[in-house]
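CORE FACILITY INTAKE
Project code: CF-77B
Contact: R.S. (postdoc)
Sample description: multi-component assembly, two entities in total
Requested service: structural model of the whole complex
Turnaround: standard
Below are the sequence entries exactly as provided by the requester. Do not edit them.
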Amino acid sequence: MYVAVKGGERAIDNAHDWLAEERRGPQDVAELDVAQIRTQLGLAVNRVMAEGSLFDPDLAALAIKQSRGDLIEAIFLIRAYRTTLPRFGYSTPVDTGAMACDRRISATFKDVPGGQVLGPTFDYTHRLLDFALEAEGLQRSEAIAPEAHPVMPRVSQFLNQEGLIQDEPRPEVDAVPGDLTRAPLELPATRALRLQALARGDEGFVLSMAYSTQRGYAKNHPFVGELRIGTVAVEMEIPELGFAVEIGDVVLSECETVNQFTGSKTEPPQFTRGYGLVFGQTERKAISMALVDRALRWKELGEDDKGAPAQDEEFVLYHADNIQATGFLEHIKLPHYVDFQSELELVRKLRREADARVRPTEAAQ
Amino acid sequence: MSAYNFAYLDEQTKRMIRRALLKGMAIPGYQVPFASREMPMPYGWGTGGVQVSAAVMVPEDCFKVIDQGADDTTNAVSIRRFFQATAGVAVTEKTAEASVIQTRHRIPERDLRQGQILVYQVPIPEPLRFLEPSEVETRKMHALEEYGLMHVKLYEDIARHGDISTSYAYPVKVEGRYVMDPSPIPKFDNPKLGMAAIQLFGAGREQRIYALPPHTDVVSLDFEDYPFQAGKADHDCDLCGAGSSYLDEVITDDAGGRMFVCSDTDFCRERREAGHVGALGVEAVA
């Protein structure tokens, strides 16, 4: 006698208990605390903040702890929390030109006013496992912190003095950029919305899209005009006061690419720009974003549609979000036996019919 | 859960969703874009359905959730618990008692009545998506009522296989205007789409809502010489003996032995309690 499978509720409870136990791991190993994650796994925290679209290092660190280090899961936790938060308003545009930079480099000029500042980068490390890190409590040489942050004018503005680079088209002063998280994405999207989608898009996806342009799928000859990482003040207009006050600061990575452009039917030869701006120290993402932004601007610059994936706004924007992607991908784990049953019946029926068509011929032979 | 509003979503969001629902009801079968929120369960787990249920739910509601027709599948349990925790509404497994029923992949066997709401979880709301991947293009095709591509697909199926090779998510035409995806229900369920209850469809990841008001004219696409046929396994339920319900095939032993049981667990239970016994069933304990 068959009894239909019951016990979904108990199975779920048990799975949750087991998950909690696995997350904690063996009791004889000290538990990670959120401050350790925040301060020692800072780049993971940055990625979670960037793709979670919420600047809060403590919450991001908590999410990483809760998700056992699965960053997409952590991003999901942050997104699901973020969406419940009320909107008090929008900040005034942040002035990244006034950024207190920890890192600032330009690949287009040997030296620039304000200097090249490497900052805490992996760039020139040799990727050799440092077994000394296995030992705890080692004293490390201390970095010499810069005394003050010098003024660092934008590199692109030097090119602009000669009129060699296209001005960033300025939106109307009063134009409020759309909000991807409050209105459904409709196409064609404005550049502001495209940048929003890229800024919270999956780092791996945006990286691969950017990489594809470098390999020839809508190549756009990018130079890193400037990459800067540092702290900027966030200001908000308070209606009762009538002026903007500083409400906090955020760390941003900003990348401006300078792209060769030989001109089109509508535009003269000049350098053009791609732009990337991401929460935290996340420069791989910021550079990737700038390349993809530039590739998506083909229409506005009168370039040819080369049919490349990175030029296809719908393709890029609809597939960049890893929370959407992972959800839909993983949902095929859920039961589908009703659909499958109807497919079973269909295939059986088609086979019967095919059989009936083949059999008489065989008999004749 | 007191940190969250009734049924989780804030009232502004519910209002936005209700507007989309009203528009959907006014234009049956039309896909209304809405600003879908991230929910505390993943996309693909029914976030569209959950948002629609949250938007229509009132404290007096009695809520039922089914997945594959069953109340006890894990995701149905999870969604039911979510609303128990966030809305504190009464829940039931009985189709007749429920005022709001959220479903994935099935329509209950028992006829729904006026006043009930059936909320569908929809993965891909666009019936033309597998013929044309671009959303920009498919929206244009709906606007121009340009459905030739779909008819060609159905025709080619018949030419190639002798049959239309779509067995679930079978496309329908609504009130002679919009071609609509009824969500991945087996085509067996299609004839019930003109029901007396309100039917609401939510696709969270794709940010679309659509609706069928009561007694809407819903026609499964077909040809005069190849009329639509709703199919099911050619068996009776082995537990309750029902001959007209949609059946799941269950593999029962290593030798590939199998039995067929109602996919609608509440329907099957009700019949067994009424004394019906299938070939492999035992009499219900009263």
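Facility notes:
- The CA atoms of residues 217 and 284 of chain B lie 39 Å apart.
- Residues 232-280 of chain B form a domain with the Ribosomal Protein L24e; Chain: T; fold (CATH 2.30.170).
Invoice: internal transfer
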